[in-house]
Amino acid sequence: MANLIVTGGAGFIGVNFVRHWRAVAPADEIVVLDTLTYAGNPASLDGLDGVELVVGDICHADLVSELIESRRIDTIVHFAAESHVDRSITGPDAFVTTNLVGTHSLLKAAKAAWLDTGSGTPHHFHHVSTDEVYGSLGPDDPPFSETSLYAPNSPYSASKAGSDHLVRAYHHTYGLQTTTSNCSNNYGPFQLPEKLIPLCLLNALLGKPLPIYGDGLNVRDWLHVEDHCRGVELILKGGRPGETYNIGGGQELRNIEVVDEICRSVDLAFATDPTLSKRFPEAPPARGGSAAELKTFVEDRKGHDRRYAIDSRKISAELGYAPKRDFAQGFAETLRWFLDREDWWRPLLERAAFKR
């Protein structure tokens, strides 16, 4: 039995992990530490037993220290981050504060509780990072591995790169038992409508433009969030202290291909379920058209990395990881979830952060 703090556990990937961990380790106690910015949604935790939500900032080391002591925490799974690249371009300060200063605050509190007191408590600090720290790949370059050089190109990725280095330093300097994972683009349930897939999916349902940066040929490796959570589970259970593991989906797709799949799937859903036309009358397929009519090419993002791809052979060989979903299956499940959970995403669209 373990006692966990999951930072950012009311956000997209964090809440999926909390739900996954509750299913695979029902006896464990989970404290979700989340400051509930626009990216945190406590409603995403509804229906979970044995999960305590603490609204607080990871930058407050005293709060983290108190939680570690009072809840007898032995495991920290660190998802909390400012993560939307567009927002990092217009407002980088928050990314440096949360991703760099916040991670350091957690590390200090963990070191103080688990090492400085001499308690000898077995512990694990797992840090969740991104493939964006490695920069951009050319069309024929091999995928990123754990030994790829860091070359971040946005304030977001630079702040995550810095946090990765701090986690590594706390292991090698102080002996803190840490692991790090760098993942590719996640998608799935509970994802906020600022990222490509939920943004275009909901816009297709609501008859709004589907924005595509530049020529739409930027390539990403797509990872279903449940496969990501399984990868983190394997690292928590068997990862070697001080090591980094890349978690990928093995699904390289151009952004335009992803948008085309969204359009095709939405059209098919309307063709097979007549009730959707009544629920979403502004969607083009509700009036005999196609969601593809909404595709809109927009000015490219500054510093937009051209291609990401993840080499997952290390976690596969050491821990037995393999993604269970290809993109077709994973997106079909995601579409179904968003169609079934209008009660979850409708209120989000009323928030200032998502009004458009």
Automatic annotation (TrEMBL):
Its cofactor is NAD(+). InterPro entries: dTDP_Gluc_deHydtase, NAD(P)-bd_dom, NAD(P)-bd_dom_sf, Sc_DH/Rdtase_CS. This is dTDP-glucose 4,6-dehydratase. One of its GO terms (molecular function) is dTDP-glucose 4,6-dehydratase activity. It catalyses: dTDP-alpha-D-glucose = dTDP-4-dehydro-6-deoxy-alpha-D-glucose + H2O. Keywords: Lyase, NAD. The keyword NAD applies. The keyword NAD applies. Belongs to the NAD(P)-dependent epimerase/dehydratase family. dTDP-glucose dehydratase subfamily. Pfam families: GDP_Man_Dehyd. It comes from the Bacteria. Signal peptide: none annotated. Its EC number is 4.2.1.46. PROSITE patterns: ADH_SHORT. Residues 5-334 form the NAD(P)-binding domain. One of its GO terms (biological process) is nucleotide-sugar metabolic process.
